[in-house]
Amino acid sequence: MSIRPILIHPDPRLKKICAPVEGVDPSLRKLADDMMETMYDAPGIGLAAPQIGVLQRLFVMDFSGKDTPPDPMALFNPEVIWASEEKNTYEEGCLSIPDMYEEVTRPAEVKVRYLDLDGKTQEMQLDGLGATCAQHEIDHLNGKLFIDYLSRIKRSMITNKMKKLKKERALL
Length: 172
Ligand code: GNR
Ligand code: NI
Prior knowledge:
Blueprint: H1 26-41, E1 46-48, E2 58-61, E3 73-83, E4 87-94, E5 97-107, E6 110-115, E7 121-126, H2 128-141, H3 152-171
């Protein structure tokens, strides 16, 4: 297993539509394993492949709290097949936009269809933080970030902060 560097916004790879995987093979399982380790190390509750520069449709998540056993999940070719009318607002963050948190409103419950680590089709109904996290990750696979839901002014303030952060990091 290895920890991979996480791309920071703005990066053209975070704006791309990712390609579906053609079944789940050992190299994709290894990739999911690396993503899981990278997510736990960060730490975060989700990580999408484009965040480590891999433009394929998969993400990992574990939104179990610190007082509950770990619940790692890897989802390939995930699709929202149903979303509730009811909405939920969460303060979202993103490992590609460090230390910035803003409220985003999304469907409160979703049903997601995906391939599991065995390449088997599964469906999962999510609510609460899980529903928010899955939608945030699927957005990544479509080149979308949570700041795309904010006003232009907020988005450009955050983007400018991230440009500065990247410059500072490049000098270290
Ligand atoms: O770690 C993360 N926390 C989080 C909190 C609220 C809504 C979404 C998230 S996902 C984020 C990790 C990440 O950037 N995934 O792409
Ligand atoms: Ni994110």
